[in-house]
C-alpha cells in the first residue's frame, strides 16, 4: 500500500521535499476487522498545524510516519458483522491507499444522499464547520450583515449560502477572479471583494457594508481580521474559525493592530473547534440535506488525481489554487 509520510517539518511554506511517497504492507485482517481501500482523501489547512512539533488541539504528525486526515473508502474485506464488502465509510486514515480497522471511530455513509466525497465537504467536516460557526457560535439572526473571508473555499462557500438562506446581507472576499465570478454567479451573495486587488481592505469593506458588520466569519486572520474589526457594529461577533494567513508565518503577524476597538464596540471574539460540537451532527445533516434539496446550497470541488499528488494539493491550499473543497481522488 502506498502512503505519504512526513519526512521533515516545513519551515514557512510547505515544500514537496517535506513529503515522501513510501510503500508498506497492510493486512491480513483479523477477526472483527475490516480492510478499506481509500477512494477520496481530504487535504485541509489545519494539517499545517500538525506538521509543527508542538501540541495544539491535535497532536503533531511524526517524522517518517504517514500523515492522517479525513477519507472516504470502500470496505473490500470484512470480518466485522457491522460492515459488508462494498460499504462506503468515512474515516481518518487518509494519505494512504489501504487501512484496517476494528470499526471504532468510523462511520458508514449513504452515497444515495450525495456523492460519497461530499461527506468530506458540504455534508462533512467543512460544511459542519460553517454551520456550527454561524448557528452555534455567532447565533446568526435573520437580516444581519455578515462578512466572510476565504469565501469561495470549502468552509467559506457554505457560510455564504447558509447566511443567505436566512436572508442576511453577505459580503465575501477571495483572491482570484474565477472565485469572485463563482461567488457572484452561484451563491447569490451581495458583494464580493478581490482582496489582492484593493489598496485598503478596511475602506473597501466599509463601501460594501455602509451600516457595518454584525458577524465576521474569519477563515484568514491578520489583515482581514483587522478590516473586519474596523467595520464591526457594536456588540458584533467575530467567529474565529481559522487564520490561514498566519499558518506558514515565521514571525508574529503585523495585523490586527486595532484590537483596542473590541472594547468600545463591546465585540465578542470567539474561537471554536468543530469536533467539540459533534452532538449537533444529526441536526446539521438534516438541516443541510434540506437546503441542498431546495437548491439553496451548492458547492464546488477541486479534484487532484493520485495519492502521489496529495502534497501538491495540500500546498495549493496556501496558494489559493482551490475553488471549493480540495480533494484527492485515489485510483
Ligand atoms: P479553503 O477551501 O478555504 O482553502 C484555503 C483558502 O484560503 C485558499 O483557497 C485561499 O483562497 C485562502 N488563503 C490561503 N492563504 C491565504 C492568505 N495568506 N490570505 C488570505 N487567504 C488565504 O480551506 P477550508 O475551507 O478547509 O478552511 C478554511 C479555514 O477554516 C482555514 O483557516 C481552516 O484552518 C479553518 N477550519 C477551521 C475548523 C475549526 O474547527 N475551527 C475546521 C475546518 C477548517 P483565496 O484565493 O481566496 O485567497
From TrEMBL:
Gene3D superfamilies cross-referenced by the UniProt entry: Medium-chain alcohol dehydrogenases, catalytic domain, NAD(P)-binding Rossmann-like Domain
InterPro entries (alphabetical): ADH-like_C (IPR013149), ADH_N_2 (IPR041694), ER (IPR020843), GroES-like_sf (IPR011032), MDR_fam (IPR045010), NAD(P)-bd_dom_sf (IPR036291)
CDD domains: PGDH
One family name in Pfam for this protein: ADH_N_2
Record keywords, A-Z: Oxidoreductase
Keyword hit for Oxidoreductase: yes
GO terms assigned for molecular function: oxidoreductase activity, acting on the CH-CH group of donors, NAD or NADP as acceptor
Domain Enoyl reductase (ER): 12-328
Domain of life: Bacteria
Species: Rhodopirellula islandica
Protein name: Oxidoreductase YncB
